[in-house]
Amino acid sequence: MTKLDQINEKILRELGRDGRVSNLELAERVGLSPSACLRRVQDLEKAGIIKGYRAVLNRAALGGGFVAYVTVGLNEHTKVAQETFERAIALAPEVRECHNITGAVEYLLRIEAADLEDYKRFHTDVLGTVPHVNAITSYVVMGSPKDERA
């Protein structure tokens, strides 16, 4: 396993801020030679600590921008019920994140839709038709003063 020393933590922080930073610039920021920096980044990738690189999209500029967090409770607490739900959700492009959580409900979803009407369609035609769904609570995002998801 790759050791997470202070330099590796600096590398991860910098890549988290800007995944497109050049190796030369990254090396300067963390105080390494370019070759040593590249080796460390490759080690972090091989170890699975860095899983990939993504573009952060401006959904509003793409004609979307409606975001809601949705909790979903199931009427059965079985492996089959969870697998059925997870398979259905994996096919829904509006679901950008799905988390199995502890507490009063089983799942927390982050939904991105074009607008309220599009979200209503998803809520009714997708979530409303998934077997074992017992409770749905929607929390509409009105603003995101801090969002560090990559």
Keywords:
2 domains; 5 helices; 4 strands; alpha+beta; Alpha-Beta Plaits; 150 residues; 37% helix; four-stranded antiparallel beta sheet; Arc Repressor Mutant, subunit A
Q: Can you walk through the features of this model?
A:
By secondary structure, the protein is of the alpha+beta class. The chain has 2 domains: 6-46, Winged helix-like DNA-binding domain superfamily/Winged helix DNA-binding domain (Arc Repressor Mutant, subunit A, Orthogonal Bundle); 66-140, Lrp/AsnC effector binding domain/regulation of amino acid metabolism (RAM) domain (Alpha-Beta Plaits, 2-Layer Sandwich), CATH 3.30.70.920. It has helices spanning 6-17, 23-30, 34-46, 79-90, 116-126; strands spanning 66-74, 95-100, 107-113, 133-140. Strands 2-3-1-4 form a 4-stranded antiparallel sheet. Helix 2 (23-30) packs across helix 3. The mean pLDDT is 94.
Which runs of at least 5 residues are low in confidence (pLDDT < 50)? none
Chain oligomer state: single chain
- The CATH topology assignment of the largest domain is Alpha-Beta Plaits
The count of DSSP E runs of length 2 or more, i.e. the number of strands, is: 4
Number of helices: 5
User: Could you say how many structural domains there are in total?
Assistant: 2
Beta fraction of the residues? 15-25%
Mean pLDDT: 94
Shape: elongated
Largest sheet features: 4 strands, antiparallel
The largest beta-sheet arranges its strands as 2-3-1-4
Which structural class do the helices and strands define? alpha+beta
